Amino acid sequence: MHLLLFSGFLGSGKTTLAVQVAQAVVERGKRVAILVNEIGEAGIDNQLMRQLDLNVWELLNGCICCTLSADLVSTLQKLDADYAPDLVLIEPSGAADPHSVLHALPYYRGRPLESQRCVTILDPLRLHVLIEVMTPLIHSQIQNADFILIGKSDLAQSEELETALQIARTHNPFVDVVCADLTAGLTPELLSQVVPWLS
Fold first, then answer.
1. Phi and psi for 149 in degrees, rounded to 5?
2. How many domains does the chain have?
3. Has this prediction a pTM greater than 0.90?
4. CA-to-CA distance for 77 and 64, rounded, in angstroms?
5. What CATH number is attached to the domain comprising 36?
6. pLDDT value of residue 194
7. Dist. CA 172–CA 186, nearest whole Å
């Protein structure tokens, strides 16, 4: 079982990328489960995913990196036992610190994870503001990334994309960084960068 964690602030494009990746992996004959963490009583993202016939599990009323970390581990173990997915996509709330989510994984006691990967999506239109007002969170999202996607390349000015690239490189100098327009769909090249074990 492979695990793929999407990180990024609210509105960065996590759901768009998660749905595109899930559909592409399913089309290749793999079993996919999606764990969605909504802070509140009713999830919106998961309703969209269910409409697309994706296997969605919810963690509600708390942040996956704090109060729900035990629920994350138990849900992963239940998923492994009952569904045996090839890939589990985790889409936490935009306010979740990926370090804390990853910190819970050593307590998982199901089948050994074949890989775990954190993909961070940055919004170049708001990044300069977010990094000032949400400094520790944005730094953690960048520093814990195994791959960084700067989204909204169709909407951002070249200066905004360059600033986002510089911020990413400053806080995680060795990570691969790609700019993309997620509304245009997932290219085979981008899919192989997000889910390298699939190719």
1. -110, 120
2. 1
3. no
4. 15
5. 3.40.50.300
6. 97
7. 24
